[in-house]
Amino acid sequence: MAQHPSASPRICPACDGFASVAITLGGRDHHGHLRTITAHCPACQGTGTARTRRDREGARA
Hints:
Blueprint (H helix, E strand, L loop, with lengths): L19 E9 L5 E7 L12 H8 L1
Antiparallel strand pairs: 1-2
């Protein structure tokens, strides 16, 4: 019997699955390392997946 592929997770429409990025602040510290900060997608809180409609409806009730 053939196995059915599992459902793929829903990708966040706001970030297209790239939920966290490193942003350079410009310049380097005294050790020579590039200074960066991490930013997360506000829509998915850095997970890269969108919540299902069922989850959102349950949260309101």
